[in-house]
Design goal:
Blueprint lengths: L11 H6 L3 H23 L1 H26 L7 H18 L4 H25 L4 H23 L4 E3 L4 H7 L2 E2 L3 E2 L1 H18 L1 H11 L1 H6 L4 H27 L1 E3 L5 H12 L11 H20 L4 H33 L1
Helix pairs in contact: 2-13, 2-14, 3-8, 3-9, 3-11, 3-12, 3-13, 4-5, 4-6, 4-11, 5-6, 5-11, 8-9, 12-13, 13-14
Length: about 325
């Protein structure tokens, strides 16, 4: 239990104990660095839209991936759900010319089904979720490729959505800001309520802390685990559908970069790899930090390899700072007692 801060409000100990403290510091430092190198262009609308568009896509996936990591699980299959869902939507609404809503529901169903399979295997066997989701990822990739070639005879399927669907899921506002940014913020609000306000959020933390103790306490660990995997599949499918609505084409090979990018955002956001600790605000800040680095290198005219070095350094710094901030918090709490 965290010690109370008293009437004076937020204390140094409570701030240090927050998992997103290091994430906030990292984001501020990274943004100032690229703002200084990128100049006014990076700080103007084109610069903001560039990294916010990246952050929205990765961030929608990073949220449920982060919750799974807090619960002590991993989901590597998101990289295959994205192309599978986009391909399903494009085939149903593009190739077979069914209404857009049918394609959207079909794509989302793919994500929910893959998530259910992941959760079911993890809870019914002793195989680690990392191995399970890698296996499912390759299986889904193979089925997506086979379905596309069998139906369309190609690894890509085009689809031009109607104006209403385009405006809701794939429109660029003022030609720069993708509407997915607003969807991302909406998902942030939903996941914040789920993890930090609703009672189920405590179950997620308990699951990552000690699964057996959580089960003995009456928490439906299996149902919760399956539900978290289905949330991950749903969000990955949503991104896949948004991509096909935005770029009007579904590609079998798309989505692989989201696997490690989403995990990096989560870790930079202060979520412990061992589970049991993390926050939605931290994941949000970690996603923004990753996106700023990802796009800032182009505005700063730096070698793209520099961006990889910075992201790698941030990842290591995030892991180290998690332990440092928590050690500081524990020392502070001990002194208070």
């Amino acid at each position: 239990m965290e010690p109370k801060t008293g009437a004076k409000g937020i204390s140094l100990g409570s701030l240090a104990r927050r998992p997103e403290t290091g994430s906030l510091i990292g984001f501020v430092v990274v943004y100032i660095f690229f703002a200084a190198l990128g100049g006014k262009v990076f700080m103007s609308a084109p610069g903001w839209s560039s990294w916010l568009n990246i952050a929205a896509e990765v961030g929608i996936i990073a949220l449920p991936v982060g919750l799974l990591m807090i619960s002590g699980e991993f989901d590597m299959s998101v990289g295959s759900v994205i192309p599978a869902s986009s391909m399903m939507a494009a085939i149903l609404s593009g190739h077979y010319e069914l209404p857009a809503i049918v394609g959207i529901l079909g794509g989302l169903s793919v994500g929910l089904l893959v998530g259910f399979v992941n959760g079911l295997i993890v809870t019914r066997t002793t195989i680690p979720s990392l191995i399970v989701t890698i296996g499912v990822m390759f299986a889904v990739m193979g089925m997506t490729l086979g379905l596309a070639v069998m139906i369309k005879g190609s690894t890509s399927v085009s689809y031009v959505p109607d104006p209403l669907t385009k405006s809701i899921l794939g429109q660029f506002i003022n030609g720069m800001f993708n509407v997915s940014i607003f969807w991302w913020l909406g998902f942030v609000a939903v996941f914040f309520y789920f993890l930090h306000i609703s009672p189920i959020g405590n179950w997620v933390f308990a699951l990552g802390g000690d699964r057996e103790s959580a089960r003995n306490a009456g928490i439906p660990t299996d149902k919760l685990t399956i539900g978290l995997f289905m949330m991950s599949g749903f969000n990955a499918a949503f991104v896949g559908i948004a991509q096909v609505m935005t770029y009007q084409s579904a590609q079998v090979a798309g989505g692989q970069s989201f696997i490690f990018n989403s995990i990096m955002c989560v870790v930079i956001g202060g979520v412990l790899l061992t589970g049991g600790a993390g926050s939605v605000v931290g994941i949000l800040l970690g996603t923004m930090t990753f996106a700023v680095v990802n796009q800032g290198i182009y505005f700063a005219a730096l070698d793209p390899n520099i961006g990889s070095i910075i992201i790698g350094a941030l990842l290591l710094a995030a892991v180290l700072s998690n332990d440092s901030f928590r050690a500081l918090a524990m020392n502070y709490a001990t002194k208070k007692k």
